[in-house]
Write a structure and sequence with these properties.
- With 125 residues, this protein is mainly α.
- It has one domain.
- Helix 3 runs antiparallel to helix 4.
- The longest helix has 28 residues.
- It comes from Rhodoplanes tepidamans (Rhodoplanes cryptolactis).
- It is a multi-pass membrane protein.
- It is found in: Endomembrane system.
- InterPro entries: DUF1232, UCP031804.
């Protein structure tokens, strides 16, 4: 039996405890942050599609873990480039989301994308 990507010892504990924390961080902070910054985030539709994909229990576990990690990076107040910096603030967030979405684009379904567009339309009203 091959254990591709298996982690042992401290790495295994860190990996298994990180996902629930990332998911909780995203569930608690995603909507408040998105509502504050939606006008300044050109990748909002991809961000929302990733959010809906991460919440979808039909999405494979490893994809959900990666998406929650990327979404937690967006939600966290401190990151590589502060979000308050004009024109540059969300470039690191966009790069992280774009990378994860590109890796797992086959898991973002038309339903996830439709829900993202609908949510953005509702926020615009």
């Amino acid at each position: 039996m091959i254990f591709t990507g298996a982690r042992f010892g401290a790495d295994a504990t860190a990996e298994t405890t990180r996902e629930p924390r990332d998911e909780e961080t995203v569930r608690r902070g995603f909507w408040p942050k998105l509502k504050r910054v939606v006008a300044r985030v050109p990748f909002a539709e991809e961000l929302l599609a990733a959010y809906y994909c991460a919440l979808d229990r039909g999405t494979p576990h490893h994809v959900r873990v990666a998406l929650f990690g990327a979404l937690a990076y967006f939600v966290m107040p401190s990151d590589m480039v502060p979000d308050l910096v004009p024109a540059l603030g969300f470039t690191d967030d966009a790069a992280v989301i774009a990378t994860v979405v590109r890796l797992f684009f086959t898991h973002l379904t038309p339903e996830h994308r439709s829900a993202a567009r609908h949510a953005l339309d509702e926020m615009a009203r």
